Amino acid sequence: MSNDHMQSKEFLRLVELLEEVTTSRKAEQASRAITEAAFHQTISELNTTVQRLTASIADLIEENRLLKNPKKNSGNSSIPPSKDENRPVKTSSLRSSSGRSPGGQTGHEGSTLKMNSSPEVVIDYTPNFCKCCGFDLVDQSAELICRRQVIDIPPVKPIYTEHRLYRKVCVCGHQSSADFPLGVEAPLSYGHNTQALIAYLHTRQYVPFKRISEFFHSVYSMPISQGTVCGILDRFARKASPAMGLIKNVLQGATVVGADETGARLNGKSNWFWTWQSKQATFIAYSCKRNFQTIQNHFPMGFPKAILTHDCWFPHFKTQALGHQICIAHLLREMNYMEQKYTARWPTEFKQLLLDALELKRIMEPEDYHKPLKQRTELEIRLQQLLSYSIPVKDKELVVFQKRIQKHRVHLFTFLYVPQVPPDNNKSELAIRNIKVKQKVSGMFKSIKGAQNYAIVRSITDTCIKNSQGILQAFVAIAKLKPTV
Length: 485
Hints:
The chain has helices at residues 3-68, 192-203, 209-219, 226-252, 292-298, 314-317, 328-341, 346-363, 374-388, 396-407, 426-442, 448-466, 471-479; strands spanning 167-169, 175-177, 256-266, 269-277, 282-287, 303-310, 321-326. By secondary structure, it is of the alpha/beta class. The chain has a domain at 328-421. A hairpin with a 4-residue loop joins strand 4 (269-277) and strand 5 (282-287). Helix 4 packs across helix 12 (448-466). The chain is extended. The relative contact order is 0.10.
């Protein structure tokens, strides 16, 4: 074998070895790259896990803090839902499920739009020729096969009524002049229907002055300024003032009266609206104070024939009444807060006591109120046990609540002894809520007179609703009256 051939074989062998080394290094590099990628991926996943666990720990710490110091909201206090921070879409309710499906229940009679048997306008449509052969059908008799009605309103425009005075000369020489009728005091004024509609839009529909002015201009082609609207409401409230005396008389003769108050903004400052209401009447009053003097100003004699239901605000207890009922719904919301803040079983047991009392009220028959009742006696015993229980001093708010109930214990279960008394003050809260709705839509009140006017007209509005009277018709009757001085 020649030297050249041997050198060639060695060279090829060397090349093979170099290729093996290169391949081995590439495999090693690839393996190292894969290992490094997996390592970095693992590190990234661990970092993500650490961040998630850190966030979870922070949430648990915050949740534990909130459990010890829960924030008050509409579900555990008297704070309105609009002031809840980060409130959920669906707020919690004190009501339990009725077990019924939503919507109309079986056996419920629905109502549908019915045709008018005597329509004002009738338009007949008859074919004049055959759609098949074209034969003339004008002289053929027609048969009614279907009818449909369209309900609409006629074009609206104001009616101007001119009142003219004349005078006559008697044979004796004396001149006698006619007089303008009641309500026609100015050269140009707005009629009773217009005054009533303005009061209705302002009070019942919560429409602001600017939009009332726009409404009359756009719908009725009547240019009424905001100042004129204000003046009309002032005169309307004066005409309606005597009705407030009648509402007071109805309330003072009632057997059950609910009372409540709410804050209102007047030129940026806090003021108050109060309400006293019964089954037949609602009285709303404006006041710059939230004290007993406001009650004295409107009802100095109190309600000597009535059980007064309220939310435990201390001025109401100073009101003369046959008895009191504190609102159970308020107490249940407070118990929700106490359950969230404290680990004690006392708030849960007291809450269950109230729920059992409400259930007993639901099933009681009229004759049960005037005789000994085992379930009611058991509730009284449970109440005494809860009020006698020694709550730890560290649970400060719970101790204060227990002392409040001990003080007003006699007013807790009045609704289980008097059939007409409700267990809550919801009707009063609904009456006073209209003030909040008015402010949401129209903003704050600008003057004391405006707030007083709204209270007067709103009182009549709610009283009309309770007595199934047409609000607008009642307002027209008021607008026809002579204003009081």
